[in-house]
Amino acid sequence: MIFRQLFEPLSSTYTYLIGCEDTRQAILIDPVVNRIDHDLALLRELELILMVTLDTHIHADHITAALHLKQRVNSRIGVAAMDRLPCADIGIVEGRPLKLGSLTVEPLHTPGHTDSHFAFVAGERVFTGDALLIDGCGRTDFQNGDSAALYRSVTDKLFALPDDQLVYPGHDYNGRRVSSIGQEKQRNPRLGQGRSLEEFAQLMAGLNLPYPKFIDHAVPGNRQCGVCPTDLPEQMKAYCQTMTESRQG
Predict the structure, then answer these.
(1) Which 8-state DSSP code applies to residue 9?
(2) Burial 165-202 (b: 16+ CB within 10 A, else e)
(3) Helix (H) and strand (E) counts for the chain?
(4) InterPro entries annotated for this entry (predicted)?
(5) What residue numbers bound the domain in which 173 lies?
(6) Helices within the chain (DSSP H only)
(7) Each residue of 45-78: pLDDT tens digit?
(8) Domain containing 127 — which CATH number?
(9) Which pTM was predicted?
(10) Which of 15, 33, 43, 236 is 20 to 30 A from 193 (CA-CA)?
(11) Burial (Cβ within 10 Å: 0-12, 13-18, ≥19) of residue 235
């Protein structure tokens, strides 16, 4: 498997490139719109053909590049089937793997951060989006979030993977790049160390996090697979700068 971990600094988002060495077909997981040109340059450098983009969920902190990558290179858009987005080409469902050449990606429905959140297992790696972060997890107080659902997603599904399964999260704000299931089971202060559902729910209820600054723009745009709002405030235009400047078609 060809693998690259990419980073978008404005939202501290990790994008993941995986590719088949035989067919040169590739997938981008959680691509960010203001990194389109960088991602396409890397695909050209590696002589890969982008076939599919996958989003772990409808993001609240950045605009996905899915639609604009489709316009640029004719890639297909994969999102949770339950979101019923008219712009999607592939509806992601647990138990229905995505196969490209020698690549097999197994979707795991991991609700809690959002109700339609998915993680993706590919070989020795699991791409956990915002469900499981390194020493943390995504918040559960918007987009139909549910702390009990997130607890079950992590403890019943993700922690059921082998301990040496590598964990690649959707974000990290401290420069960390990778963990493992075994490490998160032992060290994660929110969900590891045998923490109970009641303890986790109480912890999440007491976070008192600020309202996400980009959510009112990102969610509507991402429900269209990556459309930047026309009324974006000046201080947020960097989130969509490349999209407005890049050639389309």
Answers:
(1) T
(2) bbbbbbbbeeeeeebbbbbbbeebebbbeeeeeeebbe
(3) 7, 12
(4) Metallo-B-lactamas, Mito_Persulfide_Diox, POD-like_MBL-fold, RibonucZ/Hydroxyglut_hydro
(5) 7-243
(6) 36-45, 66-73, 147-152, 181-187, 197-205, 215-222, 241-245
(7) 999 999 999 999 999 999 999 999 999 999 999 9
(8) 3.60.15.10
(9) 0.95
(10) 15
(11) exposed
